[in-house]
């Protein structure tokens, strides 16, 4: 399983988390987020893919940030249209589209994006844009019949691992970890992340 840790800000914390054996690291470029990234550089090992998280951002500003930090993926967490996603992808950008989920109706929104993105990220529907710390009923994802791979997000924490191990879907490729592994907004508990990854490996998920 691919592991993405999102909402990173502190340079030393990034290195501690990277050493846990994760593949992707997310940086939030949304000023209203308590995990808003404002540092001048991102320094992580070369094997870590850097994901920039944006919410209804101006495309030109978003691509400027992409180039400045040498990002690998654009994660669009707002109301970005399928057309915008498709245009960005046609220009060579790798796109992750977050879909807020609480019902089967929310799953149907993926249909318009099916050929426009590289991955989906299914998160909990809430009043804001992610980071609620709340999980949703993962069983609703049985209604997702698309071919685009996805990451599961939304309130994932170490204590939920037994339920995660019982969840399966042919397009599930990994988990997105954020507030459930924090000691403070933007500061991750590397030991808890390492424990999560070690237990996943032991069960051969």
TrEMBL record:
Residues 4-198 form the N-(5'phosphoribosyl) anthranilate isomerase (PRAI) domain. Its EC number is 5.3.1.24. It catalyses: N-(5-phospho-beta-D-ribosyl)anthranilate = 1-(2-carboxyphenylamino)-1-deoxy-D-ribulose 5-phosphate. InterPro entries: Aldolase_TIM (IPR013785), PRAI_dom (IPR001240), RibuloseP-bd_barrel (IPR011060), TrpF_fam (IPR044643). Coiled coil: none annotated. The keyword Acetylation does not apply. It is an enzyme of class 5 (isomerase). Keywords: Amino-acid biosynthesis, Aromatic amino acid biosynthesis, Isomerase, Tryptophan biosynthesis. GO terms for molecular function: isomerase activity. Belongs to the TrpF family. This is N-(5'-phosphoribosyl)anthranilate isomerase.
